[in-house]
């Protein structure tokens, strides 16, 4: 397998059932409590606002916990992902939760070919999503093509500074070591684990990822015909992204030593310009 999508899909297909079984995702909570929301959407909710009655699509939805949560807030949701194993878990979760969510299999760049263009009030994408894509401008054009005029993009994502840090130095220092700006060649990782607790040793250990600067992301959104309406940087992230982080109430994590020196995540919002 040489195509980055094939390499990454194999990794996510293997991860999906172990993520679905993990306490971190806690799929059973969606069945126990009809008002349960994922920690990610709970964090997003103040900036997300009232989404009742909106038609939304969640790009790179993985196993659907955030997608189902958005549906519980009143949006008519579609989830899109390139991993059939992830979508199988997402559909199982939606049934478990009693949520009417459509799930569609496609990579992000193929979304305009499988979804109705210009029909969505909300395009939502979350943590750890765009790092799997090689071209941020192409991503932004996809988002714009899906939104109706006046429709909104909402993305909360790991900060490019966080993605560029090296955390395994012998002196314990955090160092900017990986690319901050977008490059054609990916950073290739080898890892036989994942970000949830599991004893499973993974066979598909290779992933290809890309970073890009905050300015590149904003520029891509503007060039695609959207107007920026919000950009907030946060000092927390919803997983233990670096060794020795402190867990905060609500499921967020933060660098223990002087956390305000480091942007952990950001929320960007934009509206498609009426034509």
Overview of this structure, please?
Keywords: Methyltransferase, Transferase. This is Methyltransferase. The protein has a single domain, classed as Vaccinia Virus protein VP39 (Rossmann fold), CATH 3.40.50. The chain is built from nine helices and 13 strands. It has helices at 4-20, 28-32, 39-48, 65-72, 84-97, 111-114, 136-146, 160-163, 214-223, and strands at residues 55-59, 76-81, 102-105, 120-125, 147-158, 165-166, 175-176, 187-190, 206-209, 226-234, 246-247, 253-254, 265-272. Helix 1 (4-20) packs parallel to helix 5 (84-97) and helix 7 crosses helix 9. The mean pLDDT is 93.
Label this structure with key terms.
single chain, 275 residues, alpha/beta, Rossmann fold, seven-stranded mixed beta sheet, two-stranded antiparallel ribbon, 9 helices, globular
